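Structure ticket #2291
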Amino acid sequence: MAYPTVGTPYGMIPVNLIGGQVFAGSTRLIPIATNSSTAIFFGDVVTLASTGTLAKDAGTSSATPVGVFLGCSYTDPTFGKTFRQYYPGTTNITDVVGYVADDPDLLFKVAVVSTGTTISYVTRANVGENAVLVQNAGSTANGDSRNGISSTTATTSTWPLRIVDVVPETAMTTGGGSYTEVIVKWNAGMHQYNNPAGV
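Resolution: structure written out below.
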């Protein structure tokens, strides 16, 4: 029996590593530039800028990820050390750091969408194919990303993500064999740590 229904995309959530490697939940702290105006939400794909600071990766078919954003911390002038689910953008604080799941071998759970935040599906036949990101504005209510991947998959080698499995627990109850969530990994050379050209 399938459960629960996936109502909206939620970004990319680390689940484990390729090949059965142990994932200990490790993150890397990467600074965000002071007054960076772009909000970054939990589960958003992020990139390392040439300044060495973290930025939201707005790419879809040509993302250049360093990892996935899992929150941030900074010193609030009123409340002191503060931890947040998302970076709201235009924060006049000089010590904002993002928590990034940056292991190139990570596997992520992600929702499938047809367009925007409309949940769609793929079938097991799509496992092994490549996918593009669908970028949406995150939720300021809970701090989560609203990004997903497109239900249109292909063997296009320049696309950033490879589908490696489906998530049976949220298979559609109608139209058996249709899956609203999948497990993905970064395609070879897409992750910034594996790109010989550097940042």
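Closing remark: The chain has a mean pLDDT of 92.
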